């Protein structure tokens, strides 16, 4: 029987790091949908606060087209200057958490191209996508010493890989 890990609170810095990881690993089309989904999950007051905080971080030229509409927000987030400002606002962790947990991101890692790379993803991505994680075996071809590997006993690679 597997022991379940106790859930611990994720810090704001961890939430932003997860956001950065996902943003760097999903295509732009998924990111656009995730931004829209993230903002739509938030209340109107939270949306307005986030847009206001973004405007306070940005130079005057970038404040044009500030909207609480999820689609407009997603388009605005294509600008790297705006993304940079997003991680500096007080509510950055709120947006980051909503982005990472959004249905488009989960779908990308569940059934999309990201599902192909699940073995290389961190455990929290596995949880997001609903995959069971398996422990890494350290490169051994089997898990018990003295049990032949995938080749016959008369081969150089047979037996316990720790003896190679």
Task: Give an overview in words.
The chain has helices at 12-25, 28-41, 44-57, 70-76, 80-86, 92-100, 103-110, 123-129. Helix 1 (12-25) crosses helix 6. The chain contains eight helices and no strands. With 164 residues, it is mainly α. The longest helix has 14 residues, at 12-25. The protein starts with 11 loop residues before the first helix and ends in a 35-residue tail after the last helix. 49% of the residues lie in helices and 0% in strands.
Helix- and strand-based class?
Answer: mainly alpha
**What fraction of residues sit in β-strands?**
under 5%
Number of helices: 8
Molecular shape? globular
Helix proportion range: 40-55%
pLDDT below 50 for ≥5 consecutive residues: which ranges?
A: 133-143
Q: H/E element string?
A: HHHHHHHH
Radius of gyration: 22 Å
Largest sheet: none
Distance between the termini: 33 Å
Number of beta-strand segments: 0
| Whole-number mean pLDDT | 80
Keywords:
164 residues, mainly alpha, 49% helix, globular
Would you summarize the structure shown here?
The protein is mostly helical and 164 residues long. It contains 8 helices and no strands.
SSE blueprint:
Blueprint (H helix, E strand, L loop, with lengths): L11 H14 L2 H14 L2 H14 L12 H7 L3 H7 L5 H9 L2 H8 L12 H7 L35
């Amino acid at each position: 029987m597997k022991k379940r890990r106790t859930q611990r609170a994720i810090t704001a810095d961890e939430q932003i790091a997860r956001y950065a990881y996902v943003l760097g690993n999903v295509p732009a089309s998924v990111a656009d949908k995730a931004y829209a989904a993230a903002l739509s999950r938030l209340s109107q007051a939270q949306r307005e606060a986030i847009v206001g905080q973004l405007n306070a971080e940005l130079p005057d030229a970038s404040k044009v087209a500030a909207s609480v509409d999820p689609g407009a927000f997603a388009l605005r987030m294509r600008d790297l200057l705006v993304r940079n400002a997003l991680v500096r606002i007080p509510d950055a962790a709120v947006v980051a958490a909503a982005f990472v947990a959004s249905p488009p991101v989960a779908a990308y890692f569940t059934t999309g191209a990201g599902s192909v790379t699940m073995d290389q993803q961190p455990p929290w991505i596995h949880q997001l996508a609903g995959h069971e994680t398996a422990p890494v075996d350290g490169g051994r071809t089997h898990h018990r010493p003295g049990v032949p590997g995938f080749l016959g006993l008369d081969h150089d690679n047979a037996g316990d890989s720790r003896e190679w």
